[in-house]
Amino acid sequence: MERYGTCLLAFILLFAVVPRPSASAPAAEHTLGAGSSLSVEDRARPFLTSPDGTFSCGFQDSGENAFSFSVWYTAAAEKTAVWTANPGAPVNGRGSRISFRRDGGLALDDANGTTVWESKTSGGGGALTISLLDTGNLVILDPSSSTGGGRVVWQSFDWPTDTLLPSQPLTKHMKLVAGYFSLYYDNDNVLRLLYDGPEISSIYWPNPGKNPFDNGRTTYNSSRIGVLDANGAFLSSDNLGVNASDLGPGVKRRLTIEQDGNVRIYSLSASTGGWAVTWAALAQPCSVHGLCGPNAICEYQPSLRCSCAPGYEMVDPRDWRKGCRPMFSVTNCSLQQASPEQQPRYKFVKMAHTDFYGYDLWFYQSVTFAYCKKICSEMCLCIGFSYKLQGQGVCYPKSVLFNGFTSSAFPGNIYIKVPIDFNASAPPVSARSTTGIACEPTVPVIVQESGTFGRSGNGTEWPYLFAFAGVLGLLDLIFIATGCWFLSNKQSIPSSLEAGYRMVTGQFRRFTYRELKDATGNFKEEIGRGGSGVVYRGVLDGGKVVAVKKLTNVAGGDEEFWAEMTVIGRINHINLVRIWGFCSQGKHKLLVYEYVENESLDRHLFDMDRTALPWRERYRIALGTARGLAYLHHECLEWVIHCDVKPENILLTREFDAKIADFGLAKLSKRDGAGDSFQLSHMRGTTGYMAPEWARNVPVDAKVDVYSYGIVLLEIVIGSRISDQTTAGGERLEMSQIAQALRQVVDTGDVVPLVDGRLQGQLNPRQALEMVRISLSCMQERSNDRPTMDDIAKVLTACDDEDEHPAYRS
Question: Which of 68, 248, 410, 480 is deepest in the core (most CB within 10 A)?
Answer without folding.
Answer: 68
